[in-house]
Amino acid sequence: MSQELGSKSEKNGKINNLKVVLFGIGIGVILTGLIILIAMPKMMITVYQSRYSTIEETCSKLKESIQAHGWSSPMTRNLNATLAKNGIEMKRPVRVVELCKGAYANDILQTNPEVSTLMPCAWGVYEGNDGKIYISGMNMGLMGKMFGGNIAKIIGGSVAIDEKNMLKDIILQ
Description:
- By secondary structure, the protein is of the alpha+beta class.
- The protein has helices at 2-44, 55-68, 79-84, 102-111, 140-147, 149-167, and strands spanning 45-49, 76-78, 94-99, 121-127, 133-138.
- A hairpin with a 5-residue loop joins strand 4 (121-127) and strand 5 (133-138).
- Helix 4 runs antiparallel to helix 6 and helix 5 packs antiparallel against helix 6.
C-alpha cells in the first residue's frame, strides 16, 4: 500500500512539474507577443533629421541623390494640397518623395507580384513639432527579413543599402 502511495505521489509531482513548465512557456509566449507588439511599430519606420531647413530643399536634395544613385523619382506628392482639395487643412507641411529602381522592381515582381502594393518606395518629408525637417521611411532591412526569400535579398539587401547611401549626405548622423 505504501508503494502504491509513493507511485501516486510521484505521478502527482510529475503532473505538477509539467503544469509549471507549461505555465512558464505560456507566460513566455504572451510576454514575447507583447514585446513585439510594442516594439514593432518603432522598428518598422526609421526617422532621420534632415540637414536642410525647409521641406522644399530637403525634397530637392532627395531627388538629386535618388537620381545620382541610378534610381528614378516618379513623383513628389504634396499631401497638404491633396487634403486641401477635400477641405482638410494641415498645419505642418508633409510631402512624399517616391523612388524606384526598375531592375529591382522587376526582380521582385517576377517572384512576388503581390508586393506591388509596396511600390514605388517612398520617403515622407515633414516638419516636426520642433520646426525641424524630418525624413521617414520603412525599415527596408527589417521588412525584407520579415518576407524572406527574394524579397529579403532585394528589399532587405540591395534596396536597404542603396537607400542608406542616398540618405547619407542629406541626414544628420
